[in-house]
Amino acid sequence: MSNILGTGAPLSSDASLIIQVAVVLVLSAAVYRAKGRLYMQHAYLMLACTALHAASVAVVMVPVAWSLVWGVDYSGFLVLVLVHAVAGVVVLAGSIYLMWVWRLGKPGPCFKHKNKMRLLAVAWVAEAAAGVAVYYLLYV
């Protein structure tokens, strides 16, 4: 089986798309948990999102982005790829930073970063949307 979604995309790109959609769904569940003051559940869901995102970036996105940046001459498409890539790096760095602040401890140190968390959530959804757009333009 060369792909999952039947688009002609490489298996790794299909898997990355599925992971990123799953991450956005888990991110939504994490936000819901935080609003319900279930902070430890929120934290563990965010840890899962960060781990999945990091794996997807390392295994799929970096190699694909590298080949696209150096091999594609579509100026509008290249801008979309760069926006997706930069947003992905910002999201990954921000989520790793917040995981470091938390360090599997009790909620508390993270509370002073509430606005950063909100900005990160918006950036994460925007990054995922750009990733879906890149996938669509490349493979559909």
Please tell me about this protein's structure.
It is built from four helices and no strands. Helix 1 (11-35) runs antiparallel to helix 2, helix 2 packs antiparallel against helix 3 (75-102) and helix 3 (75-102) packs antiparallel against helix 4 (114-139). The mean pLDDT is 84. By secondary structure, it is an all-alpha fold. It has helices at residues 11-35, 39-71, 75-102, 114-139. It is 80% helix and 0% strand. The chain is elongated, with a radius of gyration of 16 Å. It has one domain.
What is the number of helices? 4
Helix content: over 70%
Uncertain stretches of 5 or more adjacent residues: none
- Biggest sheet, in brief? none
Please tell me the overall pLDDT.
84
Report the order of strands and helices. Answer: HHHH
Domain unit count: 1
Strand fraction equals under 5%
Q: Name the structural class.
A: mainly alpha
Overall outline? elongated
Q: Alpha-carbon distance between the termini?
A: 18 Å
Task: From the alpha carbons, calculate the radius of gyration and give it in angstroms.
Answer: 16 Å
Secondary-structure topology with pairs:
Elements: H1 11-35, H2 39-71, H3 75-102, H4 114-139
